[in-house]
Amino acid sequence: MNNNPFNTASFIRPDVIGLKPYKPVVPIETLAAQLGVSPDEIIKLDANENLYGPSPRALEAVKNLRYLHIYPDPEANDLRQALSRYTGIPVDNLMVGSGADELIDMITRLFLRPGDKIINCPPTFGMYAICAGINGGQVVNVPRHTDQSLNVPAIETAIAEAAGAKLLFIPAPNNPDGSAISEAELRELLALPIVIALDEAYFEFHNRSFITWVLEHPNLIVLRTFSKWAGLAGLRVGYGAFPGAIIKHLWKIKAPYNVNVAAQAAALASLQDLDYLKANIAKITATRDKFQADLQQIPWLKAYPSYTNFVLVKALDRNAADVQSALAQEGILIRYYNSPGLQDHVRISIGTPSQMDKLIERLKKL
Ligand SMILES: Cc1ncc(COP(=O)(O)O)c(C=O)c1O
Q1: Is the torsion defined by CA of 337, 206, 57, 72 positive or negative?
Q2: Which residues have C-beta within 8 Å of that of residue 67, sequence separation ≥ 6?
Q3: Mapping DSSP to helix (H, G, I), strand (E, B) and coil, where does residue 220 land?
Q4: Ligand 1 atom at minimal distance to the Cα of residue 171
Q5: Alpha helix ranges (H) inside 135-243
Q6: Cα distance between residue 97 and residue 102, in whole Å
Q7: Which of 104, 125, 100, 49 is nearest to 225 (CA)?
Q8: Which residues line the pocket of ligand 1, CB cutoff 6 A?
Q9: How far apart are alpha carbons 255 and 319 in whole angstroms?
Q10: Which residues in the chain show pLDDT less than 70?
Q11: Distance 176 CA to ligand 1 centre (A)
Q12: Ligand 1 atom with minimal separation from the 226 CA
């Protein structure tokens, strides 16, 4: 043991020392081992994954990879060409990331200097605040209304009052409630002096997108992912559409080999198997609608409308943490929230019809 007395922690950025550690999810194998069941028996409805999995073409593409010893294409050219056809956005305006998460991180790195601010509209996806914090930014929260809609006048006031507010992150539809943003709201926000990162992670379940607006609005970025509709969450691949004046600088800070060869191949193959994946999306949205209807038979649960592959539910006269842990004991995982605006809420991802039926049966007995 080297007994050099110098304190390495004193070199670490004080703002990072002040950050709360990220609470990682427990891997499915660990949970299965704890419950003494096989991972296949776990009903995993806690991370909005696609339980139908990837397209067979994506699996085949990964199986047939021959050049794992060669670095991936740093520009993901084949994938970006295919994405250009899929989105209608020119290749030059597209960048691929290791999940949408990496692009969220890159955007905060690109824009924020220490002390600069993002506007965040909770309840919402947690990565915006996490990435802002990691990159020295401050988070100005403008809470949503109780029906989860955006408080647009309050956002306008916050931008006017918060010197150094540069970025506004909005998922469309929103996670965790599944509500959409209207065209009028987006237009109003785009007129403000702020860059808007519209996160369309769940676009394929809603089928309404603003991605082509990127070509007309220099302050709009649209993010997407293959994690949800294409069932590739484990491979980490997402993309963004960016105005030219932003993307040319984003390339400078992108890690060269950020998207691995398996992720690029699987995403490309997914875009060549749209009929298969769209059929799964249709199954998921039909299952969601039936699940919403079934939930109405349980008087102590109130579900929010959703345009996504998940449903936010409020436990009316019960402790939602108890509901979550009772289900977890039986291998059914759902996401529990107790943050401001989400007391006694759970978010339930949509699985297969039989998984959702099992969950409903279980909930009826609680
Ligand atoms: C709104 C939103 N954006 C982004 C992500 C992350 O996407 P990715 O898996 O591509 O990093 C999620 C995942 O839950 C999400 O809900």
Answers
A1: negative
A2: 261
A3: strand
A4: 1
A5: 152-161, 183-190, 203-206
A6: 6
A7: 100
A8: 48, 99-101, 125, 171, 175, 199, 201, 225, 227, 233, 238
A9: 44
A10: 1
A11: 11
A12: 10
ipTM over 0.90: yes
> Tokens 């297969």 correspond to what residue?
352
Distance between CA 174 and CA 152 in Å, rounded?
Answer: 15
> pLDDT tens for residues 13-50?
998 999 988 877 788 898 899 888 899 899 999 999 99
Burial class (CB in 10 A: 0-12, 13-18, 19+), 109: middle
Domains of the chain: 25-52+275-365 (3.90.1150.10), 56-272 (3.40.640.10)
- Give the full edge-to-edge strand order of the sheet including 165-171: 94-97, 238-241, 220-225, 195-199, 165-171, 117-120, 138-141
- Distance CA(230)–CA(226), nearest Å, equals 5
291: which 2 tokens?
């699940």
Which DSSP letter does residue 347 get?
E
Please report, rounded to a whole number, the percentage of residues in the chain having pLDDT higher than 90. 88
